[in-house]
Structures are given as structure tokens and as C-alpha cells.
Amino acid sequence: MTRVAVIGTGAVGATVAAWLISDPTLDVMLCARTPFETLRVETPAGVLESRPRLLTDPAAAAPVDWALVVTKAYDAVGAQAWLDRLVGEGTRVAVLQNGVEHRARFPAIAAERLVPVIVDIPAERSAPGIVVQRRTGGMIVPAGGSGEGFAALFANGPIDVRTTGDWTTAAWRKLAVNCAGAVNALTLKPAGIAADEEVAELMRGLVRECIAVGRAVGADLPDTLADEVVAGYRAGPADSINSIHADRLAGRPTEADARNGVIARLGAAHGIDAPLNRMADVLIRAA
Ligand SMILES: NC(=O)C1=CN([C@@H]2O[C@H](COP(=O)(O)OP(=O)(O)OC[C@H]3O[C@@H](n4cnc5c(N)ncnc54)[C@H](OP(=O)(O)O)[C@@H]3O)[C@@H](O)[C@H]2O)C=CC1
Ligand SMILES: CC(C)(CO)C(=O)C(=O)O
């Protein structure tokens, strides 16, 4: 049996864990900060409920075949404490997070063992272990042996895992969606706020900066992406809450640096100014 550890059991971690647990060919262990007994995920295909095996102390963990990091980007140090115990010879580490710096967050993990995962699975957590998965969604990983291995973990479930030969472009496309979500974190209003044309124009501005910086680091991004992002927000459920908005509602730290600050930081390194993203980063962190 393939041994899988899921580090972080919030909105996405709980969703992914519930699907993995439903596959009898996998041996799944949850590595949680806040323990719970029942994992209950309302998925588009019905409710998945289980009583998972769960650890709360990294010292109790032993090496596995796959360690999936599904904490927020700002909890990388805590996740690394688990990896120190979970990674043995042959272990592969998948980082399921937003942003474009998956590898940089885990410098102790050898590049060939680490699979950076772009996640498009909208999910919201209401209590420890209790999650609603809004859409089946999917994930994108780099083409190659480890990427295919990661995709194989989900082969018996509905979550679509694709490989790409151009991960940089895929990651910056996702960053374009996420940087625009700053308007939700700032206004504390769900996705429907994109219907307001003045707000939509700010979202396009955030994305245009993302396009310029993304191109400078090698991503192949079309000018139409800004309109596509706004159209995507308008097409989805008006009441859906993105993860940075959820962080603000819960009083947690936010991923403002990973989603907006990064555009200003990398932009500065390439001589490109990104004032809207810099402002979003500063204001969300200050709020
Ligand atoms: N939610 C969404 O719809 C989407 C989120 N993403 C991205 O996925 C990643 C995860 O987001 P999301 O699931 O929303 O985040 P959540 O805040 O819902 O969950 C993060 C989880 O990590 C846990 N955690 C933090 N530190 C540790 C630690 N040291 N050991 C064990 N667990 C720890 C938290 O514990 P505790 O339970 O104590 O809080 C929490 O359960 C982020 O990068 C996000 O941007 C991507 C696409 C969609
Ligand atoms: C785009 C979205 C809403 C879902 O994939 C997301 O990435 C998030 O909530 O952080």
C-alpha cells in the first residue's frame, strides 16, 4: 500500500485527504495542528465521512511514500518540522499551495523529490475536519516521473490532476486569479463583488501587473488574461469565499505576500513597478 501523509487539514487538506481515504489502495495519515475525530467533507459528488488516523506531534511520525504539504504558505516552518520525520529514502513531497514559490519555501527538500502543485479546488472549512468542497476542481503538476506519481494518487477519484511541460505559465495563470482576490480580502465581500465594474477594473489592474512580471520570469501570459480572470469571478457562485478572505474572517495571518507581495517583489527585481499589488499586500497585512 502507498503510504500518504497529509500535513495540514484545513479547507484543501481535508478535502484532498477525504478523497485519498476513500481509495482503499492508499494508507493515509493526517498530520494536524488542531485534532478532530470525524472528517466530513461535503463534495459535489456527496458527503465523504471518515474517522481518520491523525497525528498532532511530528515526533510520532515515520517515513512515508508521499508527504503532501497543505498548510498555508506562511506555515512552511511548521510543515518542515513534519517533513523532518516523514521524509525517508524514496519519499516524495508534494506542496499544494498557492503562489509561485513552492520550491523556495522548502529549501531543505531536494528539488527532484519535490512536486509543486497548483491547486484549483475551492473549499471552505467551518470547523476542524468539517469542509465544503465547492467544485470538484483539479490540480496541475510538472510533467515527469514525480508529477505522474502524484497524479496516480488521485487516479481513483474525481479530482482531475494534469501534468504540464510549462509549470511556470500555469502557476502564474493561477497567481493572476489569486492576486485579483485581494479585493475580497480588502472589502470582506465574497466573489460577487466582481460584478461591480469599478471593482472589476481594479482586479484587471492587479492582473495586468501580474502579467507583466510573469512574462519577465518566463511565463507565457496573454493580454486577455485580465478579462478572463474577471469573467471567471463573475461566472462562479457570488457567495463563494476565497482562502485569503477566509483567513481575514478567521483573524489568521494571510498569504498576502505569496499572492500580491510576490508580484511587487519579483517585479522590483526586474525593474517593473507593481503598485496595486504592493498596496494590496501592505493593506491586507496592516488590516
Ligand atoms: N481554500 C481554498 O479554496 C483554496 C486554497 N488554496 C491554497 O491551498 C493552501 C491551503 O489553503 P487552505 O486549505 O484554504 O488553508 P486552511 O487555513 O484552511 O488550512 C491550513 C491548515 O494547515 C494547518 N497547519 C498549519 N500549521 C500546521 C502545522 N505546523 N502542522 C499541521 N498543520 C498545520 C492548519 O491547522 P489548524 O487546523 O490548526 O488551523 C490548517 O488546518 C493555501 O496555500 C491556499 O492558498 C488553493 C486553492 C483553493
Ligand atoms: C481560486 C480559489 C478561490 C479556488 O481555487 C483559490 O485559489 C483560493 O481560494 O485561494
UniProtKB/TrEMBL annotation:
It comes from the Bacteria. Signal peptide: none annotated. The keyword NADP applies. Its EC number is 1.1.1.169. It holds the Pfam family ApbA_C. One of its GO terms (molecular function) is NADP binding. Residues 166-285 form the Ketopantoate reductase C-terminal domain. InterPro entries: 6-PGluconate_DH-like_C_sf (IPR008927), 6PGD_dom2 (IPR013328), ApbA (IPR003710), Ketopantoate_reductase (IPR050838), KPA_reductase (IPR013752), KPR_N (IPR013332), NAD(P)-bd_dom_sf (IPR036291). NCBIfam families: apbA_panE, PRK06522.2-2. This is 2-dehydropantoate 2-reductase.
